Amino acid sequence: MACLVVPATQALIVTIATKSMKKKVSNAEKSTVTVKNPFIKRINWLTNLLWGGSALLAFEHVWHGEIIPFFPFLTATANPEDAIKMLYEMGTSGVAMSLLVTAVWAGMVLVTNAIEKRTPSQANSAAE
Fold first, then answer.
1. pTM above 0.90, yes or no
2. Which residues span the domain enclosing 112?
3. 26: in domain
4. pLDDT at residue 25 is higher than 80
5. CA–CA gap between residue 89 and residue 62 (Å, rounded)
6. How many Å apart are CA 11 and CA 22, to the nearest integer?
7. Residue 108 CB coordination number (10 Å)
8. Is residue 58 included in any domain, yes or no?
9. Cα 110 from chain centroid?
């Protein structure tokens, strides 16, 4: 019903935080600013995953008629009984999806960081 609201909200918050961090970095002297935290360097991956997933969920909800192009937009908000189900779905499925996407992103960052830290001799021996 409205599980996409949670990942979309997380995507909006992360996007705003990223833009404000970039603005602070651009105000500082760029030559002295280097980002060492691999999670901050790859934060755009998280925003892309969250926005993409939210867009796919929105399309799926439009396809099934759960989102309509006129007020109240979410069909579940028209009936108080359905609104309770919607809030429950947001609290369970929406939060679980956001946590899973964030965990997958963290795993991607850790694996990428481990691969980047390998020396060329380790990479050659692993390939054999």
1. no
2. 5-20+37-117
3. no
4. no
5. 17
6. 16
7. 14
8. yes
9. 16
Kindly state the tokens that stand for 65.
Answer: 């008629």
Instruction: Report the number of distinct structural domains present in the chain.
Output: 1
Indicate the average pLDDT of the chain: 87
- Contact status, residue 90 vs residue 84, Cβ threshold 8 Å: no
- How far apart (Å, rounded) are the C-alpha atoms in residues 23 and 31? 15
**Within a domain: 30:** no
Q: Is 71 helix (H, G, I), strand (E, B) or coil?
A: coil
What is the DSSP code (8-state) at residue 67?
Answer: B
Residue 18 to residues 23, 59, 91, 105, Cα–Cα distance (Å): 9, 26, 25, 16
Domain assignment of residue 51, yes or no: yes
What's the pLDDT tens digit per position in 63-103? 998 888 888 888 878 888 888 888 999 999 999 999 999 99
Q: Look at residue 17 in the predicted model and tell me its pLDDT.
A: 94
Give the tokens for residue 89: 């779905």
Joined tokens for residue 4: 């996409």
